Amino acid sequence: MTSIRDLEQFKKTVWDYYRANRRYFPWRRNINPYRVLVSEIMLQQTQVSRGEIKYKEFLKKFPSFSALAKASNADVLMAWQGLGYNRRALYLKRAAEVVMNEYKGKLPSDPAMLVKLPGIGVYTAGAVCAFAFNKPVVFIDTNVRRVFIHHFFNEREEVNDVELVPLVEATLDKENAREWYSALMDYGSMLGVEEENANKRSAHYVKQSKFEGSLRQVRGKIVKYVTSSMRQVTRKKLQKALGETGGRIDLAIAGLQKDGIISVSRRRIFLAE
């Protein structure tokens, strides 16, 4: 059992760190639901430093749900270049289309409605509610998980998120959820650098696979090549241009087709619409 005193001391520790070391990101300024959604989708599996640059570029090109919904897949994927996991870009565009067509351009503030949008899971729905609408919704991401395991399960292995949820809820600032989660994110980021990564003791921990030489890298190269090409390309041309084996090209194409990023017709490969 964790005492009220322990919980209060924990909150003080997090707040004190945040007030002295808070980070200033573009998505923490001029906050609106569209900007928050873009940042949350973009920062999934992307380094913050890289995401910060691309976020500004992306918003300049697509400043609103309306602009993104009207854009072509090619333009969106071109703007997404360098971030990887290209299906995120198309999910974001499809979500914008739903918001424009079904919600009159206004993003829902209910997590149950948000998770119905393309590419939005439970975590993203919770984060959007907290950061865009300042709602006291409980959610757990990598940094939040690291903070709570570090403080409350310091000698435990295989810690399940189910055990963390009551603690996240008990310490949540109901009046200022947005700022509290920002504080947790910044504190958790620091712990990931200066301390042993407590997330390794999570039951949900999965080591990131190596990108260099991976099939993910081949997929990214294919999307970049097809996006920048003025015409449809063939497998043979891709294989020659990318210096990859036919087998790896075929596997990458199959995955991209499944994700709805490219289409293949009469042996020619092009972006899906």
TrEMBL record:
SMART domains from the entry? ENDO3c
Reaction equations catalysed: Hydrolyzes free adenine bases from 7,8-dihydro-8-oxoguanine:adenine mismatched double-stranded DNA, leaving an apurinic site
Which UniProt keywords are present, listed alphabetically? DNA damage, DNA repair, Glycosidase, Hydrolase, Iron, Iron-sulfur, Metal-binding
**Do you know which PROSITE patterns this protein is assigned to?**
ENDONUCLEASE_III_2 (PS01155)
Looking at the record's lineage, which domain of life comes first?
A: Bacteria
| Group of enzyme by EC | hydrolase
* Keyword Magnesium tagged: no
Q: State its Enzyme Commission number(s).
A: 3.2.2.31
Q: Which GO terms describe its biological process?
A: base-excision repair; mismatch repair
Q: Which Pfam families match?
A: HHH (PF00633), HhH-GPD (PF00730)
The text of the family note is: Belongs to the Nth/MutY family.
| Designated name of the protein | Adenine DNA glycosylase
Instruction: Supply the source organism for this entry.
Output: Candidatus Wolfebacteria bacterium RIFOXYD1_FULL_48_65
